[in-house]
Amino acid sequence: MRRLSLVLLCASLSSACDDSEGAPVVPPPPFTQSYPDAGPTPDGGSDPTPWACQRQAVVKGAPMSLLADLQLAMGRATTSNERTQAIDRFVEQVEAQGGTPLVSDASAGRQRVAFFARGESARDTFVAGEFNEWSPTATPLSQVLDTDLYLAEVEVPRTGPQPYKLVKGGNFFEDPRARNVVWDRLNRNDVGQFNSLVYPDAQDPTKGRLTAWYDVRATALNDARDVFVYTPASYDGPGCPSLPVMYVHDGNESITRESFVDAADSHYKARPQDSAVLVFIALPSQDVRLGQYTFPPALAPGWPTPRGDDYLAFIVNDLMPRVESGLRVKTGPQETGISGASLGGLISVYAGFRAPEKFGFVGTQSGTLFWPHDGEVDRNDGNAMVVRASADPVVPVRFYVDHGSPSAGCTRDGEQGADDCQSNLQFVSALRNKGYGVVHVNEVSGAHDWAFWKKRQPGLLCAFRNTDAKECGL
């Protein structure tokens, strides 16, 4: 039985063997701990070679030749432990060389693609995509020998980026080992989902791309969350530029409700000089949003314990080092922004006052700036961020503030159509009285909703890169 299983494994990997023969030897792009777009050139020089930074070279899955290597290792293995060790090495190599799925060389006669999952939970898992008309049962992952590796190898035409998902029990989900993703364009009016990509290098070069970092650990919060890195079209340009970076809260919803990625693509196409890397930070769950986006004291007894300081510690201590070491981004507060909508706007303003040495620009859209100063419900104590703007020493931070308001003026926060305009107007006034640079946008009849925040997103992105509001038409 074992001999037959080895024959079946070899058959499933035969195309990988074919691809490895006679293929041109191309040195792999350099890579760092987190992402292969940064780091030194192979010869240690300062100028990156073309293949070291451009989309067609670094934005792809791991090579199919790794399956051939696995085949040889499995053929030599005589024990279950040795087979497990071979699979461990295979998975590590896939991660280091581009993630899943594995793809044939573009010059190969047959464009073979391999998908895999590992662990007992991978049993009865399928892969679905445009290549099989999104069938939830047509392409199963089959167990390899007596191991915990489940694999499917299929032909996928290289006609453009090919979206796919894994499927189990009829439920579709992202491939957790795939780095390159796109929004699946299904607005669930909640946290959305992504498609993983085959041939991500074939995406429209005039638009940006998304890289998924799944389960990024937050030390101070003792949890993990997904992060989606948007790199604009210019990032993949021949000049291999380093770009400013903006950290964006509600990272999943910002992309899958009313796509901020679409807004960024449109703005950066019109004004490529404003291009920046956008780091969309998702939440572990919506249940922790109120706690992680607020600061002491708690709003009232029984409300979640404020964890905003721990959330900012995650960004500064865990996430920023990974971004700055693994991506071509500029560093320093003047090249670094932080932004969000609603509670995301509140925590962004808090971050600006709390860590001006890290964030030189703050963007808040319909920010929850009525958050009280002393934690007492319905107490008119000036609102926490208004108090800080008025009373604290000036910090070197520029602000962008937008919100909506009723057509007949600004009513009190919380009233129909107010979009928290009262506290936002107070905050803008306090900033200007202290001499801060601030761009203010009041959209009459603008609602507290993702569609309005997306519409105003280009103004925020422009203000991040330009100190003169007139440059942005604001």
UniProtKB/TrEMBL annotation:
InterPro entries: AB_hydrolase_fold (IPR029058), Esterase-like (IPR000801), Ig-like_fold (IPR013783), Ig_E-set (IPR014756), Mycobacterial_A85_antigen (IPR050583). It comes from the Bacteria. Residues 36-50 have a biased composition (Low complexity). Residues 1-16 form the signal peptide. The keyword Signal applies. PANTHER family: ENTEROCHELIN ESTERASE-RELATED (PTHR48098), FERRI-BACILLIBACTIN ESTERASE BESA (PTHR48098:SF6). This is Enterochelin esterase. The lineage of its organism: Bacteria, Pseudomonadati, Myxococcota, Myxococcia, Myxococcales.
